Description:
By secondary structure, the chain is α+β, with helices and mostly antiparallel strands.
Amino acid sequence: MDTNDQQNNGPELFEPGDEVDSLRAKAAELQDRLLRTQAELENYRKRANRQLDEQRQYAEIELIRDLLPVVDNVDRAITAAEKQADAALLLSALQMMRQQLEEVFQKHHAKIITAEGEPFDPNRHEAIMQRPSEEHPEHTVLGVARQGMTLHDRVVRPAQVIVSAKPAK
C-alpha cells in the first residue's frame, strides 16, 4: 500500500493550522465584544454626567419657590408704607430687603419674568383678567398682579397678569 493512500483514506489527522485559525477568529470576536462594551460604557458615562449636570443646574428650584412668598409680602409692605407719609424709614428698609432678595435670586440664576407691555406668553404668564384697551394691541400685558420667576430656562412660577382685550363696540 502506498503511503499517500494511507494519508488520503485513513483517519483525518488534526491540522495545527485549523486550531490557530479558530483561535484567531475567537480572539477577533472577543476583541469586537470588548470594543462594543467599552463604547457602551463610555455612552453610559456621558449620559450619567449629563443627568448629573441637569440635577445640579436645577437643584435650587425649591429654594426659589420658598423665597417667592417673601417677595410677595415685601411688595405688599412697600405698597402699604407708600400710602403713609410717616413710613419713610419702613419703606426704605423694605426696599433694601427687596433689593437683597433680588440679589439672592440673581446669585442662584433666577430672574423675575418681565411682563408689563409685552405680548402675553402662556409659557411665562398666567392671565387672571382681561381689560378692554384701545391704546394697546390685543393680548398685551397691561399689568402684573403677581411676579413670576425663571430659573435658568425653566419657569418656576408664571407671572399673573392682566391682559388687554379688544374694546367693546
